[in-house]
Amino acid sequence: MKLYFFPHACSLAPHIVLRELALPFDLVLVDNQAKTTADGDDFLQINPKGYVAALKLDNGQVLTEASAILQYLADLKPTADLAPATGSWERVRLQEWLNFIATEIHGGLAVFFNGAIQGEVKASFQATLFKRFAVLVQTLERQDYLLGARYSVADAYLFVVLRWAAFHAIDLGEWPALAAFQQRVGERPAVIAALAAEKP
């Protein structure tokens, strides 16, 4: 498999999970501006959406969108227990969290990478984001991970997007449950290895 990535983008989540599962893969860096890969390929030919993450399978198929990639990877090695069984109530809960992270946390933080978002508009976006943080806090104050005691692919995804808060001068220390979650996940060997591999 090949994982097309840009450092510290949402592609870091499947990168972490690939390492958690000890699956063989190659990392291919994508130039976000030029839309080319480190191999010299046109990234738009690989993923017409033009953004990471993209996972190229050994059969040539390409899978995009972090939530889909994460579940696909987890199902490759169910004994690792990074996702509940397909069709179970717990799996539906996982999908619920993945959708919440993608739309409310990923989207809510990504908007601030647009420098044109300033003033009252920025304050409004922040207020909405902080309400979403409160939802996370309600869960993470009473349990270590989103699904309870078990670490899952949703936690890897949440860890990655919450890291973006620092780029926008949002101090997660104001939400101790989120800060503790970040520290807890950040200490996992697969997370440490993935972060090290993505350093320039």
Describe the model.
- It is a single chain.
- This protein has 200 residues and is an alpha+beta fold.
- Strands 3-2-1-4-5 form a 5-stranded mixed sheet.
- The chain is 49% helix and 9% strand.
- It is globular, with a radius of gyration of 17 Å.
- Helix 5 packs across helix 7.
- Strand 2 and strand 3 (36-37) form a beta hairpin.
List the helices and strands and how they pair.
Blueprint: E1 2-5, H1 12-20, E2 26-31, E3 36-37, H2 43-46, E4 54-56, E5 62-64, H3 66-76, H4 89-110, H5 119-140, H6 153-162, H7 176-186, H8 189-197
Parallel strand pairs: 1-2
Antiparallel strand pairs: 1-4, 2-3, 4-5
Helix pairs in contact: 1-3, 1-6, 1-8, 4-5, 4-6, 5-7, 6-7
Could you tell me the CATH topology label of the largest domain.
Answer: Glutathione S-transferase Yfyf (Class Pi), Chain A, domain 2
The whole-number mean of residue pLDDT values reads 97
Oligomer state equals single chain
The share of residues in extended strands comes to 5-15%
Number of domains: 2
Order of helices and strands: EHEEHEEHHHHHH
How is the biggest beta sheet arranged? Answer: 5 strands, mixed
Radius of gyration: 17 Å
CA-CA gap between termini: 22 Å
As laid out across the biggest beta sheet, the strand order is: 3-2-1-4-5
By DSSP (H or I, 4+ residues per run), the number of helices equals: 8
For the record, the CATH class of the largest domain is: Mainly Alpha
Strand tally: 5
The general outline is: globular
